[in-house]
Amino acid sequence: MTFNDKIKKATTHVNQDEGLIFEKSSPGKKAYKLPPLDVPEVDAEALLGEHAREDLGHLPEVSEIEIIRHFTRMSTWNFAVDYGMYPLGSCTMKYNARVNEFAARLPGLANAHPYQPERISQGALRIMQMLREQLIEITGMDAITLQPAAGAHGELTGILLVRAYLESQGNPRKKILVPDSAHGTNPATAAMSGYAVENLKSNAAGMVDISSLVAQVNEDVAALMLTNPNTLGIFEQEIHKIADVLHDKGALLYMDGANMNALVGKVRPGDFGADVMHLNLHKTFSTPHGGGGPGSGPVACKKMLEPFLPTPVLKENADGTLAFDYNRPQSIGRVRMFFGNFGMFVRALAYIMANGPDGLRQTTEDAVLNANYIRKKLEGIYELPYKTPTMHEVVFSDHLQTRKGVKTGDIAKRLIDYGFHPYTVSFPLVVHGAMMIEPTESESKEELDLFIDAMKAVAEEIEESPEIVLEAPHNTRVSRIDETAAARKPILRWRPSQKAEAKEAEKLEAAMKG
Amino acid sequence: MRYLPKSQSDRDTMLGEIGADSIDDLFSSIPAEYRLTRDLNIPRQYAESEIVDFFRERALESAQGYVSFLGAGAYSHYRPVVIESLVSRGEWFTAYTPYQPEISQGTLQAIFEFQTMICELTGMDVANASMYDGSTGAAEALMMATRVTGRHKAVIASTVHPEYREVITTYARYEGTPIWTIGHNENGRVDLEKLESSIDNETAGVLIQSPNFLGLIEDVPAIADIVHKKGALLIVSIAEAASLGIVKPPTEADIVSMEAQSFGVPLGYGGPYCGVIATRDKFVRQMPGRLAGETRDRNGKRGYVLTLSTREQHIRREKATSNICTNQALVALMVNIFMTVYGKEGLKDLAKHNLAKAHYAAEQFKKKGAKLPFDGTPFFNEFVVQTKGDPYQLNSKLLKQQIIGGFPLKKFYPELGNAALWCCTETTSRASIDAAVKEVA
């Protein structure tokens, strides 16, 4: 058996090599042309004196065609949603609609200066206002801020709201409870907000253990940060009890909205007891992940937290025009300059409009259907550590495969050869050797079947010839990358001395190919 | 729904395979009392053509065809067409964070190049893959200084962007970092005497901005001497990245926090932009944010990978250097392409055009009788103009001529009276400068 004969979705093809841009640079090449200066030229040294800069170091000098090829070639080394299923659990890698991109680039929106007068910004403000209203309806909350730049930034904003509210009640309290299945951003956020972090254990069903919760919640606890459905994809069925236990002791329920793609149109956090939550527009509302960002992390909350929202807050004047209200004496202050990642607001609103209430509900249903279909088809082939019903994502473990010495990270690398982006590896931490799969609604039955076939084929390979999986990926332009070496002796930037080294390495590579 | 790739019969087949009678079975873990049994009260599904029309209408309600003299932390520079062309490739914008290096080499190599160019521009040793923006980046840089020095106080110049300072106040409040704000002298720069007297042996970091919010270039070497003598770190915030083409980089700083929006990022009503933190090698382990590093694959081939992640929240949780996860990767790519297009010579030429336009405009204001309160202090492409009339009223007059005047400073710097901050970039024409000056002065 050759190591590629079970692969149905992908094949290898020639892809272009491309060095660093600095290695293409040579003096005199240009990719720009400025128009003639219509004002008198100035003498920089005379104007700036000792502050005048003489030299820009090793910035590149290249032509336009080289730039196009450079970034195009490099782009083809990336996997992307546009290529295929990207089942990263808790990341919600769904289709990024093109009309969203079109709308965000319209001149009146893309060129708007944040300090231009409000009366000539009404279109931009209207977009923000509509998005606010619709997100409030979707979450079942009372108020919202769009200012936070990403999910973790929303968490910080939300916990600061909790803190400001509790302070106004006389005691900010000391601790935040975080379940052991939580994203790392939750404890990091709590620490940044000046709170101690206390871990909360899950029960055998993968949910918050109510008796532990009761034992841990006291007058020192400010809030519980809860992801629902949690990172195992499990809806916290006793959510009302959780909220009650907290509220009885004067603590608040913060909901991490990372997994909101399981809930939109089916249930609203505001209805089941959440006091404050963030949304990830780059997950649930389809704004693109962009290779790591930008995101947007609006924070929705109940009425009692509204006075503390970051300044400014958008308001509607009596004449129907929109304006920012900066006079918010109880506000936690700003969390970001200007008004947030406006370009993401445009995209998210376009997504909601394209869906409508029926489309959003169907989207959620399809996301949950897809995850359950994968669960059904792969259960037994991979260990399912929690049998509790799951929603938009399912977490398996590598327990059955470790007998052959193969771990979740190895299976992930082999999936790459099969034409899929891996699932989320080794998270959540409560599952040893976790394989966290979130297909989203964007996958057809055909793509899901190919994924399932690939996962089965890898499981077979592990039984027959585990070295294939241990040495994967085989079909990528680089083989497994040495992460340990990278961290041990970090090379975090190119330096001119590397030019010579790179030439040597190329020679070595050529010799090896030969 | 046109984004959903399944027919009803696909759904029925899948439900059958799962062994569910209906889709509701899959939602049975949600307590019935909370399930939504109605449609969300949001507008109906729109056709793509309707969405396009809707946003075109909103775009028309926002300023178009105006000449603008606004800067103040968001700058209007020409964006080479290749930027949109390249970042519109799905391989860039529909990819996730490059956690799987074997299928993310494009993003990783681009980050590595970005880090390199930021270092070259700022004179620092190491730069991260991006922060949310200049304001949060400055706040995180100050927090970094507290970790490096083990001290807890901060000193901030009043000439740092006022909204940056507001964000820092929010961040610092619960980190237990008291802030001393120091004013500017009659030249509009940091008052060195006040600076010296406000730093004590508990001061972790001093944050200044250069060019500062009033457009003026600070004397970074002199400030650095004072700060370092007291054992604190100097953090220099740069809000107008284009200045680095002609203004000496703050090589005396310990941390540089930059907003790179000027480099090919649309104004976009304030975001998304691109913050970035750069620093000395010795401080890298206290730095927040992602870092790409060079390494080798199993066959010895050069490759790139996210590295030093033991600083980050997904590994270190509550002991992480920051909670930041998502950053501004695609915007950093725009910045990267912009820096590559202009390069070593172009960024200098571009900066010279900015310098020339702003100095021409300043001269015209002066000639026509307006007062330049900080005349004589070096500036890049922004300058303060004092007028007899109220700048808000002057701006209203200008708006009628499709001109957006300078940023009125009353709100943040009432001591400057009827003053506004005017910005000219390479895109500002002489004719529009002349028209604005005529109306204002």
**Individual helix count of chain A:** 15
Low-confidence stretches of chain B: none
Average pLDDT confidence of chain B is 96
CATH class of the largest domain in chain B: Alpha Beta
Runs of chain A in which pLDDT lies below 50 for 5 or more consecutive residues are: none
Give the helix proportion of chain B (percent range): 25-40%
Whole-number mean pLDDT of chain A: 95
Decide which structural class fits the backbone of chain B. Answer: alpha/beta
Secondary structure category of chain A: alpha/beta
Q: Per CATH, which architecture of the largest domain in chain A?
A: 3-Layer(aba) Sandwich
Radius of gyration of chain B in whole Å, from Cα? 25 Å
Gap between N and C termini of chain A: 26 Å
The SSE order of chain A reads HHHHHEHEHEHEHEEEEEHEHEEHHHH
Structure, briefly:
The complex is a heterodimer of chains A (514) and B (441). Chain A is an alpha/beta fold and 514 residues long.
Task: Please characterize this protein's 3D structure.
The complex is a heterodimer of chains A (514) and B (441). Chain A is α/β, with parallel strands linked by helices. Chain A is built from 15 helices and twelve strands. Chain A has helices spanning 44-48, 64-75, 98-104, 107-110, 122-139, 151-168, 185-192, 210-216, 239-248, 342-378, 408-417, 445-464, 466-470, 483-488, 497-513, and strands spanning 143-145, 175-179, 196-200, 221-227, 252-256, 276-278, 299-301, 313-316, 322-325, 394-397, 424-425, 434-437. In chain A, the strands form three sheets. A seven-stranded mixed beta sheet of chain A has the order 1-7-6-5-4-2-3, sandwiched between helices. Chain A has a three-stranded antiparallel beta sheet with strand order 10-12-11. The radius of gyration of chain A is 26 Å and the shape is globular. Chain B has 441 residues and is α/β, with parallel strands linked by helices. In chain B, the strands form four sheets. Chain B has a seven-stranded mixed beta sheet, with helices on both faces. The model of chain B has no long low-confidence stretch (mean pLDDT 96). Classes of the chains: A alpha/beta (514), B alpha/beta (441). At the A-B interface, helix 1, helix 2, helix 3, helix 4 and helix 5 of A face helix 1, helix 2, helix 3, helix 4 and helix 5 of B.
